[in-house]
Amino acid sequence: MLQFILLALQATIPAGTPLLFGTLGEVYSERSGVLNLGVKGMMLMGAVTAFGVTAATGNIWLGVVAAALAGALLASIHAFACITLQLNQVVSGLALTMLGQGLSGIIGKHFIGQPLPVKMVVIHIPVLSDIPFLGSLLFRHDPLVYLAIILVPVLWAVLYRTRWGLSLRSVDESPATADTLGVNVVLVRYLATTFGGALCGLGGACLSVVYAPSWIEGMTAGAGWIVVALTIFAMWDPLRALLGAYLFGGVRVLQYRLQPLGISPNLLAMLPFIFTILVLWISAGEAMRKRIGAPAALMKPYSREEK
Amino acid sequence: MADATPTIIIRHYTPEDEAASEDITYRTGFLGGALWALVPAILKARWHVDEVITSLMMVYIASNLIVLAGDLLAHYRIRVKRRKGGA
After folding, report:
1. What does residue A141 show for φ and ψ, rounded to 5 degrees?
2. Contact yes or no for A236/A293 (Cβ under 8 A)
3. What does pTM read for this prediction?
4. In the beta sheet, which residues pair with residue A215?
5. What are the DSSP calls for A161-206, one per residue?
6. Which chain B residues are within 8 Å of A280, Cβ to Cβ?
7. Reported ipTM
8. How far, in whole angstroms, is CA B52 from its chain's centroid?
9. Rounded mean pLDDT of chain A?
10. C-alpha torsion A15→A16→A19→A24, nearest 10
């Protein structure tokens, strides 16, 4: 039993990391007032790009960077549609999901069943990785895991302790006020959305070059939607995103670990979606939205003429 | 998609008579679809929850539920009746 728990916990961190990247990205995007439902599309594009570039060049880090760029590129389409054209963010996000899903399927057709030529190194943090139990649990991972965990406090600090973060938060609370004070609302939103897309792309790269490591069509398996729910669950806070991402990483691990015990993986696969509905339901009321600090200008396009 | 779950389950209990069986299948199919659509509808009407996201989630829940139901049926060795000459 102890062995089972240890193994499940060990698998939780790599499983939760793609979710963490995605959630951090979505937090930044939604903090600027742009809801991006295309997380799944961006993650898949990131995954296929990371795999393709790594397979072609033999350099895993080129693949990871390319994945971030692919995610950012896809997100910039969404940004253009929502910020410049002021279209419906839900519809544009859904379109992005389908675009990413279809495009990654076409691009990845030849990658199916191929092994990745290079493997991501596992970094053993000296001294700490020798601690029994905790060492193998927390300090023997690939660099992307450490990157995600380092990003959490960094992004938190940027959001709450810097001028940039203040602009970002003001744009989500009241874009008109921010505009009066000289914040370039359009620029801030473009940057935040594109940056969010880059992080989602990194999340996809985690899946295809570290977690799997291979390309499978539609390999995110619900991760994209979990990210959307996690962002609300985390109340748009990077620190709580860390907690939520690994909690759901754990659920994803259990999905496979409990299968031999006769518990259907479909039952557990259903949970994140039920949870998403519940989170949306609970956070729907106006009073509740205020209490959990929901971005007031979320899904509202900003134009100077309509003050 | 959603209506398939109750349909599969109910179909097992339907009488041997093919016409009556088909009739019940359609009825439960309608009912299942309506029930499934009711969830986003109530959430939208009562609490203003975005119906696009909730309906989408319901699709994923349904697709998992169908596999789950199929597995359960197979597990308990319940044979799902099929129409003669087709799926």
Report:
1. -135, 175
2. yes
3. 0.84
4. A112
5. HSHHHHHHHHHHH-HHHHHHTT--HHHHHHHHHHHHHHHHHHHHHI
6. 43, 49-50, 53-54
7. 0.71
8. 20
9. 87
10. -150
